[in-house]
Amino acid sequence: MENYIVEMLNITKEFPGIIANDNITLNLKKGEVHALLGENGAGKSTLMSVLFGLYQAEKGEIRKNGEVVKINNPNDANALGIGMVHQHFKLVEIFTVLENIILGVEPNKMGFIEKKEAKKKVIELSEKYGLAINPDALIENISVGMQQRVEILKMLYRENEILIFDEPTAVLTPQEIKELLKIMRGFAEEGKSILFITHKLNEIMEVADRCTVLRKGKYIGTVDVKTTTKEELSRMMVGRDISFSVDKEISKPGEVVLSVNNITVASKLHKNNAVKGVTFDVRAGEIVCLAGIEGNGQTEFVAALTGLEKMTEGSIRLCGKDITKSSIRERSISGMSHIPEDRHKHGLVLEYSLEENMVLQRYWESKFQNKGFIKFDAVREYSEGLIKQFDVRSGQGPITVVRSMSGGNQQKAIIAREIDKKHELLVAVQPTRGLDVGAIEYIHKQLVATRDAGKGVLLVSLELEEVMNVSDRILVMYEGEIVGELDPKTTTVQELGLYMSGAKRNTVKETNHAG
Question: What is the CATH number of domain 4-238?
């Protein structure tokens, strides 16, 4: 009989209209990295939320070191040495790094918080585990990668021995991912036990000892990572074979759809400009990828392009029309669709239903309103069609509150809305971030189909494989400038990496715009 540090036995958790976990058993050994793999909405985060006390299971029991335990809330979980880094971080933006780490377990003397001792402990932990942070920085001013370090230090500060990571690499750059996987292995070697929710097969192969697969809320099996393959794991996860390459014909670029000229955007973080004189075209029938490591001006460039931020210089033409000073709605009506980088901040209204979110860009059209009154039947019918076509899964169909859906299905809802509305240019920023292999395959096909329908696609991505597989032309952005224009058919991942890190640059050939 194996000695497990945690056993989750026959766990069943239900929500309105859906059984999120259907009789699932998961066993964690001491000192192992145990991956939990499954499609978006397979029930992975729900199962871990049961272990962390955020949800209560209807059936089943949890044991720690063989003893049955009751976990009613996260404080119970912490008392048992269980910590969790959530997919969407649970941090107070206006607090400092230190204040977030000690929140809820503040050391105090006579009712006064003793920050000095806490700060010393936090700095020691950050040095020991290679998690460099500035304890006095405000959360709202630090990068996503840094915020994740804060979440990890929160667990370490509480001396948790069972660490749950929910999609920890979804928002990280390739370099940060490497770093994090190394840290996770280090934790395991120290005797901590790790549950690692992911759907990135490469990461599982690299870091995990065992892997448990869930599909549509059911337990499929647990495998030893050393004796399995990526193909086998993806088959267990989605129930069919997945193609890891993108099938596409050679592009046939047509007229210029988007022309950006000398775009310059000020930085909110420092005196330098975040975007410096960027000029390029996107033509109908091609996918142009803006590649770069996070923080090199892509976010600010897209914000200026889509109307979310003002630019200090430059002009934008969409289908020959000057939209430099147009509002967001005018840009949308002129033919721009936008899959935003931050789906919660700019893509969805989380408290609205799925059907309300599906018509956010179009509710004023005569199809959906009459004299200012919404035609609810038309909205329902339209949403049901999109939900079916794009396989958006949710507990209660069109009336589901979007906040309750899995991250991947929230993303699919945005993609359905943006691709379906009339557009000539699709701006897709990290469209597959946080998605499983089945959903990624599907979205890549949608991007290629959009291109083949004669639309222009501007893809912004950090994923090297995605950049190489999906794009027809690559523009590399480094420190706010375009430092290279590459052809994915003739370049290598290594060369692309050199441009992205600023070690290499070429001048963008204006003559090459015709492809």
Answer: 3.40.50.300
